[in-house]
Amino acid sequence: MTTGSTPHPAATVTMLVPARHGTHAAAFFDLDKTIIATSSTTAFAKPFLSGGLITRGDVLRTAYAQFLYLVGGADADQTERMRSHLSALAAGWDVAQVSQIVNETLHEYIDPVVYAEALALIAEHHEAGREVIVVSASGSEVVEPIATMLQADHVIATRMGVKDGKYTGAIDFYAYGETKAVAMKELAEEQQYDLSESYAYSDSITDAPMLGAVGHGYAVNPDRGLRRLAAQEGWGILMFRRPIPLRTQLAPAAPAAITVGGAALAIGGAALVWRAVRKRRLQA
Question: For the segment 155-189, what is each residue's pLDDT rounded down to a tens digit?
Fold first, then answer.
C-alpha cells in the first residue's frame, strides 16, 4: 500500500463532541462484525450497482474476497490485494453521486444490523464516564454518520484521496492493522486518555495491535486467529448474536456521504455472501 512518505501518516480524527479535560478512559470499537453484523460497506452493494458505479462483473470478481472477509478467512495479504483492487476500481467516481446514493440508503441498509449487545456496551461505557471511539477501515464518510447515530464521541477511519470532485484511487490514511493502534495512541495523547484503563473491541486478528494498545482488550465474535491470540493474551471473548434496528433504539441523525474507502468495498455481493456465511455458521 502506498500512503505517503511515512509508514503511518498522521490520522485525522473526527471529533463528534467537545473535548474533555483531565485524564480519563475510553472505549474503542471496531465497526464491522463488532458493532454491526456485516460489513458497513458491503451493505451498499445493491444501490451502487443500481447507480451504475459497479457492474455485475465487478460483483462476481469480488464476491469471493468478501466471503473470506465475512467468515474471517482473509489474511492480511488477501485483504491488502482486495484493498488495492477496489481503490483502483473506484478511481474517477464522482463524490457527489456517491454521497447522494449513500444519503438515500444509509438508514435502510445499516439500521437493521446493529448488535443489541454492542449498543448496551456503548451505553455502559458512557454511563461510566468513558468516551466511545469508532475505529474502522471503512471510509470516514460512511463511518461518521453511523458513529453519530450510535452517539459515539470520535471516529478513526480511512480517508480517500479526492481531486476535482472525484476519487483519485489513492488512500490518504488507511485505518487498518497497526495504523489503528497508532491513531488510537495519537488520540489518547491529545484527549488525555489513560490507555491502561481503556477498552477495545474487535473481531479480527488484524486488529490485534488495537486490542493490545489498551488495558482491557475484548475479542468479539472472533476469527480463529484472534480467538487463539485472545487466549494467549488473556483478552476477554464476547459473542454478539442479536442484530436490531438502530432507529428503534436511538434518535436518527442527519445522513452523510461515503468515501471510496467505504463505497468501493461495497461491491462484494452482500446478500448472496451473507446467506452463505449464515449457512456455514449454522453448519459449524
Answer: 999 888 999 999 898 989 999 999 999 999 999 99
For residue 159, the number of C-alpha atoms closer than 13 Å in the C-beta half-sphere is 17
Measured CA to CA, the distance from residue 247 to residue 262 in angstroms comes to: 21
Domain of residue 111: give its range.
Answer: 14-194+213-283
pLDDT tens, position by position, 217-235: 999 999 889 999 999 999 9
Q: 254: which 3 cell numbers?
A: 442527519
| Burial (CB count <10 Å: 0-12, 13-18, 19+), residue 2 | exposed
> pTM score, two decimals?
0.78
Separation between Cα atoms, residue 31 and residue 173, nearest integer Å = 17
Looking at residue 182, what DSSP letter applies? H
Residue at 204 is within a domain: no
Provide the grid cell at 2: 502506498
Residue 135 grid cell: 475505529
CB atoms within 10 A of CB 47: 18
Backbone angles phi, psi at 273, to 5 degrees: -65, -45
* CATH code of the domain covering residue 232: 3.40.50.1000
For the annotated catalytic residues, the residue numbers are 30, 32
